[in-house]
Amino acid sequence: MRKTAALMALLLALSIIPGVALADGHTSDVRVVHGVPGLAVDVYANGGLLLENFQYTEVAGPLQLEEGTYDIEVFATGADPEVDAPALAESFDVPAGVSAAIVAHLEEGGTPALSLAVDNVSATDAGNGRVTARHFADAPVVDIWAGDAPLFTEVPNGAGADADVPAGTYPVSIVPTGATEPVVFAADVDIPEGSNVVVHAVGTTADLTVAVYVIDGLHSSPSEVPSGTAGTAAAVPFVSIALAMAGVAILATRKLGFSTN
Fold first, then answer.
1. Which of 175, 217, 156, 167 is nearest to 192 (CA)?
2. What is the pTM of this model?
3. Nearest Cα to 160, choosing from 211, 201, 110, 209?
4. Closest CA to 199 of 3, 33, 7, 24
5. String of DSSP letters for the chain
6. What dihedral do alpha carbons 16, 199, 55, 156 form, nearest 10°?
7. pLDDT, tens digit, for every residue of 173-214?
C-alpha cells in the first residue's frame, strides 16, 4: 500500500523550476527522459505520482530534488500502482549540487532499463558552447559524423561524452560503425554560446530519434548548479574534437523485462 507519508515527502522534495534556475548546495536539478518507444507511461518517485501520460522522446523538468535516495517506478499509463507491478523500477542516490537525468531507454537487444547520467555544468569559454552525446538506443556500435568526417567512432550503447565547441550550427549524421550507409539519423543543430546541448539517441536502428534538453547559463564559473530549458528536438550536435566516447556518464542501470508492443 502506498503510504501517505511517502507522497508528502515527495511533494516537499520536488518542485518544477521553469526556465533558468539555480540549485542550491543541498539540492540538484534532475530531468526525466522517456526513451522507450511505443508506450506512454506514468512515473512515480518515492510512492508519489511524478509524471502522468509521459510520452516517448519527452523530457520533463528540471525537478529540484533534495539530496537522497529516490525510488523510481514506471508504469504503463493508467495502470494501478496499488495492484500492478511496475514495468521498470530502480533506486537512485542523488547527490547534492549536480545536474542529472533519469533516462528510461532501450539497451542493445531491446531490454528496457533506467539509468542516471550526470551533466557537465562547468563554465564554458567565451564564444563556446557544449555538446553532450549519449547513446541510449537499441542499436549496435555507431559512428557520429560531421559533414564528410567521423567525429566519434565505435560508440556503444550506454556511452556518453561531452566537448566544448565554437558556438554555431553544424550538420551531423549517425551511421553504423565502419560504414557510411545507412544513415540512421541526420540533422543540422545549433549550439548556443554558454549552453550545454544534451542529446540522447533513443529508439532503434530502424527508427532512431533523439530526446534533447538544453542547460543554459554556463558563460561564467557558476557557484551553484545551473539548469535550463528542457525539450525535445530531432538533432544530434557536431563535436569538433576527437573525444573518446568511453567517458560514460551513467551511474546506474538495471535490466528488467518490459514489452514495448
1. 167
2. 0.76
3. 201
4. 33
5. ---HHHHHHHHHH--B--SSEEE-TTEEEEEEEE--TT--EEEEETTEEEEEEEPTT-EEEEEEEESEEEEEEEEETT--TTTSPPSEEEEEEE-TT-EEEEEEEEPTTS-EEEEEEE---PPPPTTEEEEEEEE-SB---EEEEETTEEEEEEE-TT-EEEEEEESEEEEEEEEETT-S-S--EEEEEEE-TT-EEEEEEESBGGG-EEEEEEE---SS--SSEEE--B---S------S---TT---EEEEEE------
6. -130
7. 888 899 888 888 888 878 999 999 998 999 998 899 999 999
Maximal C-alpha separation, the chain: 57
247, 170 Cβ separation under 8 angstroms: no
Closest listed residue to residue 102, CA positions, set 89, 115, 91, 92: 115
| CA gap 160, 134 in Å, rounded | 4
